[in-house]
Amino acid sequence: MNQQKQSILYLEIIWWIITAIVVYFVMNPIWSAVEGFEYQWINVFFIVILITYARHIFLLKYTFLAFTSTRFRIGMIFLSLPLVFFIIQMFFDFQTYLDNGGNGELFNNLKISMTQIEQGNLLQYIHTEMSFFGIGAAITGLLLPLRMMLSIWREKNEESI
Fold this sequence. Notes:
By secondary structure, the protein is mainly alpha-helical. Helices cover 80% and strands 0% of the residues.
């Protein structure tokens, strides 16, 4: 393995560690207060997609995608579109859950006793971070195919990524 690919492998590992740390710190308030949060894995999925796709959009030259075949990047273009629809559907499911009184079910599964104000703060935190990461994941899911098309075009016309 040459030096450049080895450096990119190290960067990839570092980014996955950073992603895991962000997931832990964002989800820890929920995991420590709520038992069996129904949307916890969707929430983790949103965080991972947002960080990973944003990294590929802005730092493509320093990711493994820079060394993949054109066919693989075309596949990423077509796989991203159903992923965006899935993200949007899961986000709307979460909104519907909250609108239909899911917060009452959420607070029945508390691990620790909380005052009304603390419950309201927790609900606001969950709603805000799910909205941020869900919408961010959908936006980056729409932008990554455009970045892949730009990468393919540059590779064919300018010999760069």
